[in-house]
Design brief:
glycosyltransferase activity, 2 domains, Glyco_transf_61_cat, alpha/beta, Rossmann fold, six-stranded mixed sheet, Glycosyltransferase 61 catalytic domain-containing protein
Length: 348
């Protein structure tokens, strides 16, 4: 039987190609709503007139018209948080395979099917999705909070990649243990947990509490330029040195997350009231370390416009603003005067 389990991912590849692959909803034996849809009041984003018109492209899955509406809106509706229960799942480092259905999977590899012997588990909770399996920022803001949805009788299945800077330190602080399979699970819970409503807010606060059990040393500035450095996808500001000098004139301190340990980042962010940063996954540190009343201003490339950090800021109670940067050669240019004017819009 276990030899057949290893064949599931490869059989499912064939079924997908011929259009016979099933869906999670169709295969679930139970569907439970853990948090109903809810509408909340939120502050509109802080930005200069004409900024939204500068955006030329959005990230994959984005919608520029929807983003424009959301960034100017004073209400947001969060979708449901849903638990699906599926029977007889084969979980491996590449994802989850049932007979005739697959979830969040990458291209199957024989290496993922090892070792030859693996445990059979009665109940487990799969805590990742297609994006959080691949990107550190979404692992931190999506998978880690989702792991708290697992009940006492379930094994939380979550990857902790040592190749991601700071992931191992976060996992230790949060009490998350790596479990990626292979396993055979009799009853597996899979979650639809993208909503940034009251359920996610409570879980962010619990993880913040766990991180704060070991308080950082005293220190940290109130105004921070969070430097992306070489983390994540290549994304550079052509005039970053000029940006840092202009911000330093306004009392900002530069924090380079690429060169710091987790405790040092916590120390740097613990008293931040205003944070400026180029868009990217390195920003996600602030949702666990900066004060909940802080204001984030992201510098967003015009050809990969995204509003995801507005969503997170609304959830944890932070203010949010942005400035669109124009593509110039292999990088992006920040309009320094527009940056100053954007910062002037932040309420005192």
């Amino acid at each position: 039987m276990r030899a057949l389990d290893r064949a599931r991912p490869f059989v499912n590849v064939v079924l997908r190609k011929v259009g016979l692959l099933g869906t999670l909803e169709a295969r679930a034996i139970e569907r439970r709503v853990l948090q109903p849809a809810q509408t909340e009041r939120v502050p509109p984003a802080i930005f200069l007139p004409g900024q939204l018109e500068r955006a030329t492209k959005v990230i994959k899955g984005g919608d520029l018209a929807r983003s424009r509406t959301y960034l100017e809106s004073t209400t947001v509706t969060h979708g449901e948080v849903v638990e699906y229960v599926i029977r007889d799942a084969f979980v491996h480092p590449g994802g989850v395979d049932l007979w005739g259905a697959r979830l969040y999977t990458s291209r199957p590899r024989l290496l993922d099917m090892r070792p030859l012997r693996y445990p059979e588990i009665e109940r487990a909770a799969y805590c990742m999705d297609a994006v959080s399996r691949e990107r550190f920022g979404h692992w931190l803001t999506d998978a880690c909070p989702t792991s708290l949805l697992a009940d006492d009788g379930q094994l939380p299945i979550i990857d902790v990649r040592p190749t991601w800077p700071h992931a191992m330190a976060y996992a230790a602080a949060f009490g998350i243990k790596q479990a990626q399979g292979p396993f055979r699970v009799r009853r597996l819970s899979v979650f639809e947990d993208l909503a940034q409503g009251s359920s996610k807010r409570a879980r962010y606060r619990e993880l913040r509490r766990r991180l704060a059990v070991v308080p950082p040393p005293r220190g940290g500035a109130s105004r921070i330029y969070l430097r992306r450095g070489e983390t994540g996808d290549r994304r550079l500001l052509n005039n970053e040195e000029a940006v840092m000098r202009r911000l330093e004139q306004r009392g900002f301190h530069t924090v380079d997350v690429h060169n710091l340990e987790l405790a040092e980042i916590h120390t740097a962010l613990q008293h931040a009231s205003t944070i400026v940063s180029l868009d990217g996954s390195h920003i996600t540190h602030i949702y666990y370390m900066a004060p909940e009343q802080a204001v984030l201003v992201t510098l967003i490339p015009d050809d990969r416009f995204v509003d995801v950090h507005k969503n997170y800021c609304d959830c944890v109670g932070m203010g949010y603003g942005f400035l669109v940067c124009r593509r110039a050669g292999s990088g992006y240019d920040v309009d320094l005067d527009d940056l100053e004017r954007t910062l002037d819009l932040i309420p005192a």
